[in-house]
Amino acid sequence: MTAVQADLHIDRPSVSDGAALWRIAKDSGTLDLNSSYSYLLWCRDFAGTSAVARGEDGRPVGFVTGYVRPERPHTLLVWQVAVDRAHRGRGLAGSLLDGLTARIAAEHPLTCVETTITPDNTASERLFTSYAARHGAAVTREVLFAADHFPDGPHAPEVLYRIGPLTHPSH
After folding, report:
1. CB-count exposure of residue 74 (10 Å: 0-12, 13-18, 19+)
2. φ and ψ at 56, to 5 degrees?
3. What is the mean pLDDT of residues 147-169?
């Protein structure tokens, strides 16, 4: 477990955290909300490539979910990042991302982080471009999924942000 602030710690999520992650994602107002079942599965199957920030009471107050891409084993795809409203504006999302990538890099080579961001999500764009700057990495962008790829109604395009090569993944 890694200390973030005096009252917060970062560690791996467990299945019992799934409901809280779903609630934090739902309350974010910006994330595509997945089923509650998917958050339970994520906490079980991808805990090693995800992180949760816990308050003094042990309850999750923020998270980052991700996975190592099978075709690119040195690339972490970050799926979602969210922080509980009461804990926003304190740098927690950046600490979660830094802590997660440092943990993964300690276990095996990590040279790239990828994520997708819709064009209107300036908070995520700031989070990931500042992450790239802290780690001495370039950022490239390209549309991964155009609006017409989504079968369930209007959806903004998802722009792939590729951050790498990481030169300082453990900072």
Report:
1. middle
2. -55, -30
3. 89
